[in-house]
């Protein structure tokens, strides 16, 4: 899950999504496909940072005009002249200083005062120079980036096309409405996984969610083949083991898929998988097999699907932040333990949550992420450990 994980999966498994030009208002949550650079110096011209007087000479100054934001002033060509100037207005050529209005006096049409030693205007290029790289390709676009792009003079941005994802829900035991009963349980992943995928930058349409798919090999093959026709990534839920009705592995074999990852030494969630398929025209698509237990499925999303999607969008996975454990967290032997925790920001610690069985979602609903307990270790109070944050809405930042 380090900085190169997404790029590594992309490099071994596929190609980045195509770049498209989009209006600024339609780029939140996208990824820059090329560096962001200003079209002009920022600011593009000397700009007054206060309300006051743009003066020439030592004064007192005779008022010869007024400059408001959005206008181009005539130059000051005579000593001891001034123009009234508003914050954000262009400073006229020939001005030697800007005098704050609150530090000036006006008597008989003449302005007096002592300008401060530090210039009271922003110089061209003070924030950035034209064509200077401000943000690299691969930067996630959020409201701050959109505002910066607008200030640089851009109307559109070239961003990576969001990968299109589909979801196949496997399991005859699943209900899609009403409470669990008569040996059948409610499908919790069909409604939830698309929302997680959107937080990782995917497009998921209602028609892209299919299931429950009948627990037969022909039904699995037909459903996966259909989903792959339009999706860059197909997630499936359940069927990742080798039980009597676990048909995902035979389905992948029937479709000629190659495994990128087949099980991961992590608890919960170890029977996750990632496979790739290539068309004769070189198009590459992916299948992510999520375990059927809900919390295990989310572990697969944050640890396996997230790096893949980052790589496809040209993003680097961030280095995991560290948290201090407030309570003990057990290890899981030779497996990495991803333990749900809630951040107590006031105390500066992370606390394990309760109700965290692999089939439970109550703990997940109150958690901020997964504390990483490495193989062969356990977490003790006061230990500093990495945390895998749960994904946020597009444009949000992790604190």
TrEMBL record:
Organism (species): Micromonospora tarensis
Family assignment from sequence similarity: Belongs to the MoeA family.
Listed name of the protein: Molybdopterin molybdenumtransferase
Keyword hit for Manganese: no
Function, as annotated: Catalyzes the insertion of molybdate into adenylated molybdopterin with the concomitant release of AMP.
Pfam assignment, any one: MoCF_biosynth
Domain MoaB/Mog: 166-311
Required cofactor(s): Mg(2+)
Record field: catalytic activity: adenylyl-molybdopterin + molybdate = Mo-molybdopterin + AMP + H(+)
Associated pathway: Cofactor biosynthesis; molybdopterin biosynthesis
Entry-linked SUPFAM superfamilies: MoeA C-terminal domain-like, MoeA N-terminal region -like, Molybdenum cofactor biosynthesis proteins
Top-level taxon in the UniProt lineage: Bacteria
């Amino acid at each position: 899950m380090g900085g190169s994980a997404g790029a590594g999966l992309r490099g071994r498994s596929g190609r980045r999504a195509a770049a498209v030009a989009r209006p600024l208002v339609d780029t939140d949550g996208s990824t820059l496909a090329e560096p962001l650079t200003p079209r002009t110096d920022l600011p593009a011209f000397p700009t007054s940072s206060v309300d006051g007087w743009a003066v020439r000479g030592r004064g007192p100054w005779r008022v010869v005009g007024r400059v408001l934001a959005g206008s181009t002033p005539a130059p000051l060509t005579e000593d001891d002249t001034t123009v009234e100037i508003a914050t954000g207005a262009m400073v006229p050529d020939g001005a030697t200083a800007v005098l704050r209005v609150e530090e000036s006096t006006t008597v008989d049409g003449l302005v007096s005062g002592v300008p401060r030693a530090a210039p009271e205007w922003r110089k061209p290029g003070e924030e950035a120079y034209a064509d200077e790289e401000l943000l690299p390709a691969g930067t996630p676009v959020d409201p701050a980036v959109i505002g910066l792009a607008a200030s640089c003079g851009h109307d559109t941005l070239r961003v990576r096309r969001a990968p299109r994802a589909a979801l196949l829900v496997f399991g005859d035991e699943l209900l899609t409405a009403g409470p669990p009963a008569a040996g059948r349980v409610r499908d919790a992943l069909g409604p939830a996984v698309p929302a997680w995928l959107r937080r990782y930058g995917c497009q998921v349409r209602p028609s892209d969610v299919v299931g429950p798919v009948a627990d037969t090999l022909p039904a699995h093959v037909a459903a996966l083949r259909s989903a792959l026709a339009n999706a860059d990534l197909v997630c499936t839920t359940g069927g990742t083991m080798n039980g009597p009705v676990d048909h995902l592995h035979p389905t992948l074999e029937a479709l000629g898929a190659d495994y990128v990852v087949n099980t991961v030494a992590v608890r919960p969630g170890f029977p996750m998988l990632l496979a790739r398929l290539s068309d004769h025209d070189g198009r590459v698509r992916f299948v992510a097999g999520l375990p059927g237990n809900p919390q295990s499925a989310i572990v697969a999303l944050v640890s396996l699907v997230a790096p893949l999607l980052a790589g496809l969008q040209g993003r680097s996975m961030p280095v995991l932040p560290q948290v201090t454990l407030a309570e003990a967290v057990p290890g899981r032997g030779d497996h990495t333990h991803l333990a749900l925790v809630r951040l107590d920001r006031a105390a500066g610690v992370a606390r394990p949550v309760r109700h965290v069985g692999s089939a439970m979602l109550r703990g997940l609903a109150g958690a901020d992420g997964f504390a990483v307990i490495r193989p062969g270790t356990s977490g003790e109070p006061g230990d500093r450990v990495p945390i895998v944050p749960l994904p946020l809405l597009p444009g949000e930042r992790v604190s």
